[in-house]
């Protein structure tokens, strides 16, 4: 029965139930067809860019909706899931040239003095970049930082040629009258910390052995940078400070085969002339023990840094811990115990002091006798 004062609704006033086709048509007009990268219309098989999700009908709806008893489908806009792009991390190489040249020279030419060998710097840098590509196959190289020393920080001919290479930045510390590098470690620390703090790199490859870089490694790691410590295969013993090795996230070794591609011996160091080769495990002569002392001093200058060994000067006594370390290193090379041989231990210390005296310009200083 119709309520008083009302009239039957006209046909065009009856609430229309939006059927599936109507809704699809409207949605397509509003959103357009979704086309896959291949060119296929993702909604073609459904009649439009929509995905059907069955839902219950609306209960109590006026007009024709009130008469619906079967569920109908309500469309939803198709949402495409887009995978995030792959992350390509950025890495940089920090090359302590003093360490690399000395360690490679000892390994290939038998001497850490640069006059005893020639280095093809371009080949070395290319090899280091190739090694980094193998470690970071999807990474991006920021640049190679090349840390070396020069008198009054004036580039040598070789350093100018290196500076012209692509993706290489030459950073120079000072070189004093005794050919000691000054300020190189501070340059490495400054660059490493700055790049890490500004999130310019994700990975840092540090090629060095100096313990003074431990604080720089810690600082870079605090900004989320992973530090990869690369070293040169030691000629004997070790040529990287243990605290630096312990602090790094990853360590890697450049083996002799790699070094031989870019290092060419040009002469034998004077201390080796006329010295017979010694068999491992056999008792050394005093001259051989003296030579081993020189070689250990050479290696310590590379690993521990000249600044640290300068604290031992002018001698002639060695602190107990240093003397014990010298003895242990010598015995590992000789594969022979020097403990019962006081004369050989004295020759060992004398060779060690002679190398340090030469390094610091104290050739006439008294040698150790205890």
Describe what you observe in this structure.
With 370 residues, this protein is an alpha/beta fold. The protein has helices spanning 20-31, 97-109, 121-135, 157-163, 184-197, 214-222, 242-247, 256-260, 286-303, 306-310, 320-334, 342-359, and strands at residues 50-55, 72-77, 90-96, 117-119, 140-150, 168-175, 181-182, 203-207, 226-232, 250-254, 263-265. It has 2 domains: 90-265, 3-Layer(aba) Sandwich (Rossmann fold), CATH 3.40.50.1010; 272-359, no CATH class. It has 12 helices and 11 strands. The strands form 3 sheets. A 7-stranded mixed β-sheet has the order 7-6-5-3-8-9-10, sandwiched between helices. The longest helix has 18 residues, at 286-303. The protein is elongated and about 125 Å long.
Summarize the structure.
The chain is α/β, with parallel strands linked by helices and 370 residues long. The protein contains 12 helices and 11 strands.
Search tags:
2 domains; Rossmann fold; seven-stranded mixed sheet; disordered C terminus; 37% helix; 370 residues; alpha/beta; 12 helices; 11 strands
Order of helices and strands: HEEEHEHEHEEHEHEHEHEHHHH
Unreliable stretches? 27-31, 34-38, 40-68, 75-87, 267-280, 364-370
Q: What's the CATH superfamily of the largest domain, by name? A: 5'-nuclease
Counting structural domains, the number is 2
Task: Describe the secondary-structure layout.
Blueprint: H1 20-31, E1 50-55, E2 72-77, E3 90-96, H2 97-109, E4 117-119, H3 121-135, E5 140-150, H4 157-163, E6 168-175, E7 181-182, H5 184-197, E8 203-207, H6 214-222, E9 226-232, H7 242-247, E10 250-254, H8 256-260, E11 263-265, H9 286-303, H10 306-310, H11 320-334, H12 342-359
Parallel strand pairs: 3-5, 3-8, 5-6, 8-9, 9-10
Antiparallel strand pairs: 1-2, 4-11, 6-7
């Amino acid at each position: 029965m119709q309520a008083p004062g009302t009239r039957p609704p006209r046909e065009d006033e009856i609430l229309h139930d939006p059927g599936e086709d109507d809704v699809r048509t409207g949605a397509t007009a509003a959103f357009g067809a979704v086309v896959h990268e291949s060119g296929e219309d993702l909604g073609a098989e459904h009649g439009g860019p929509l995905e059907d999700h069955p839902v219950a009908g609306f209960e109590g709806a006026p007009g024709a909706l009130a008469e619906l008893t079967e569920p109908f489908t309500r469309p939803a806009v198709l949402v495409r899931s887009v995978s995030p792009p792959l992350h390509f991390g950025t890495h940089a190489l920090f090359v302590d040239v003093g360490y690399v040249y000395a360690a490679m020279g000892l390994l290939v030419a038998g001497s850490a003095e640069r006059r005893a060998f020639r280095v093809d710097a371009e080949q070395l840098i290319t090899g280091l970049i190739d090694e980094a590509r193998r470690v970071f196959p999807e990474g991006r190289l920021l640049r190679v930082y090349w840390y070396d020393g020069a008198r009054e920080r004036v580039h040598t001919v070789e350093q100018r040629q290196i500076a012209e290479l692509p993706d290489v930045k030459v950073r120079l510390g000072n070189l004093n009258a005794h050919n000691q590098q000054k300020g190189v470690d501070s340059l490495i620390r400054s660059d490493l910390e700055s790049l890490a703090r500004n999130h310019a790199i994700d990975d840092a490859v540090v090629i060095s052995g100096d313990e003074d870089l431990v604080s720089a490694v810690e600082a870079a790691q605090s900004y989320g940078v992973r530090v990869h410590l690369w070293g040169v295969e030691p000629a004997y013993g070790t040529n990287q400070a243990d605290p630096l090795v312990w602090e790094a996230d990853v360590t890697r070794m450049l083996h002799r085969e790699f070094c031989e591609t870019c290092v060419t011996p040009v002469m034998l160091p004077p201390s080796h002339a006329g010295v017979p080769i010694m068999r491992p495990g056999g008792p050394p002569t005093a001259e051989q023990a003296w030579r081993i002392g020189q070689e250990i001093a050479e290696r310590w200058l590379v690993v521990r840094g000249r600044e640290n060994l300068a604290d031992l000067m002018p001698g002639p006594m060695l602190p107990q811990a240093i003397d014990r370390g010298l003895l242990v290193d010598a015995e590992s090379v000789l594969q022979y115990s020097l403990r019962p041989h006081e004369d050989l231990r004295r020759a060992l210390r004398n060779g060690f002091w002679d190398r340090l005296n030469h390094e610091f310009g104290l050739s006439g200083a008294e040698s150790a006798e205890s």
